[in-house]
Amino acid sequence: MGIYTDKRKRTHTPDGYELLLHQSGHLEYDFNWHLGPYWSKFLIEMRDNARFMAVKCDECGNVYIPPRAVCGRCFKEMNEWVEVGPEGVLQGFTIVRFPYINPNNGELMKVPYTAIWVTLDGATTRMMHFSNETDEKNLEVGMRMRAVWAKEPRPTSIHAVEYFEIIK
Ligand SMILES: [Zn+2]
């Protein structure tokens, strides 16, 4: 059923065909997604060198991580790479306690986990990641955090950083 009910009560087209409203099933397919030069460099630097590389706008000075080709403020192409982090400031967090299906592997997410927004030292923008701290009493916006890198070989994804931990 759901929250929406079709009140038209029509079950057939004017020429007598049954109206098919819903077809459920399962579909899988393999695909490749080209990340482009900026995200490629970002992920390779994390994987191979355990460092965060951002791009800086030479017009306004904004430092973007994840990196992007064009400044969102000036609309200028950016080519200056700068290293930022690995420490930063917690800008926000959400502790997720409701499990849902992880789109990466089709399994239920292990809860609780903490999604965070962090501004790495030297960066202007916030980056989303995770923290190993799952007790909200220990988290506070403005506190300092540091990246904990995954063991080698690190994956070519944001999970090259395992999580961010509180700097005590
Ligand atoms: Zn700019």
Q: What does this molecule look like?
A:
The chain has one helix spanning 36-49; strands at 52-56, 63-64, 80-84, 87-96, 113-120, 127-131, 144-149, 161-166. The protein has 168 residues and is mainly beta. It has one domain (36-166). The strands form two sheets. The chain has a five-stranded antiparallel beta sheet with strand order 6-5-4-7-8, with no helix packed on it. It is 8% helix and 28% strand. The protein contains one helix and eight strands. The mean pLDDT is 91. The site of zinc ion has 8 residues, from loops.
- Span from first to last CA? 51 Å
Specify the overall morphology.
Answer: extended
> How do the SSEs run, as a string of H and E?
HEEEEEEEE
Distinct helical segment count:
1
Query: What would you report as the Rg, rounded to the nearest angstrom?
Result: 22 Å
List how many beta strands DSSP finds.
Answer: 8
Mean pLDDT: 91
List low-confidence stretches.
Answer: none
- The count of domains is 1
Strand order of the largest sheet: 6-5-4-7-8
Bound compounds, each kind once, are: zinc ion
Kindly name the structural category. mainly beta
Approximately how much helix is present in the residues? under 10%
Which percent band covers the strand fraction?
25-35%
Largest sheet: 5 strands, antiparallel
Compile the SSE list and pairings:
Blueprint (H helix, E strand, L loop, with lengths): L35 H14 L2 E5 L6 E2 L15 E5 L2 E10 L16 E8 L6 E5 L12 E6 L11 E6 L2
Antiparallel strand pairs: 1-2, 1-3, 4-5, 4-7, 5-6, 7-8
Bound molecules: zinc ion.
